[in-house]
Each structure stands twice: as structure tokens, then as C-alpha cells.
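seq as requested:
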Amino acid sequence: QVQLVESGGGLVQAGGSLRVSCAASGRTASASTSTMAWFRQAPGKEREFVASIAWSPYYADSVRGRFTISRDNAKNTVYLQMNDLKPEDTAVYYCAAAAAVYRTPAVYRESVYDYWGQGTQVTVSS
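C-alpha cells:
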């Protein structure tokens, strides 16, 4: 079993920056996190894809150029650096991991991910 724990969420003003992290742990963490991704869910909306990384990063159009996903394989950790934040970025951000390597369009589908974190709240004030 693999556990994903997010951290780094919080309250920030519009135009500001925030970095969220997701650490994977468990006996099979290294083998189970070939593809890691961030999704988000705003109040009253469905959960949506934000970014993923396996060999290459992929981004949703709404965050491309503002957000950067990266990973530290030695630490089984994935990061999401969020710059120029907007009020519409307010959401609970979830980390997800898949054992297989996925590219688009598969990375957009929640069903390909094997593990999910509990989420971390990001609130952007105007």
C-alpha cells in the first residue's frame, strides 16, 4: 500500500505564489509512483486535472505558464509551484499516483491513478 500526504496549502493574495508538496510512502512507493499528478476541486465543481509528471510534464490550459510540476525521485515527492495565483485557483488540491507511465490524454483521467492523497486547501484572496 502507498500513502500520499500533501502539504503546503494555505491562504495567499492574488498574484502571489505557493508551493504544495506530496510525499509518497510505503513499501512499494517507488514502484507505484511512475506518474504523479495534481488535481483540484473547487466548491461546487467537479475535480479537474492540473498537472502531471512521468518523463515529461503536462499541464491544464488554465495553469500552463503559471504552475510548474517537479519531482524528487530520491524522496518520492512531487511538488507544484504555483505563481501568479488567481482567485479561481482556489480549491482543494489532491495528489495522485499511478504505477504506470502515462501520457496525454490518459493523464487527464482520474481512473488511471491508483492512489490519492487527502488534499490540501489553497485559497487565493482577491
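The two ends are 40 Å apart (CA to CA).
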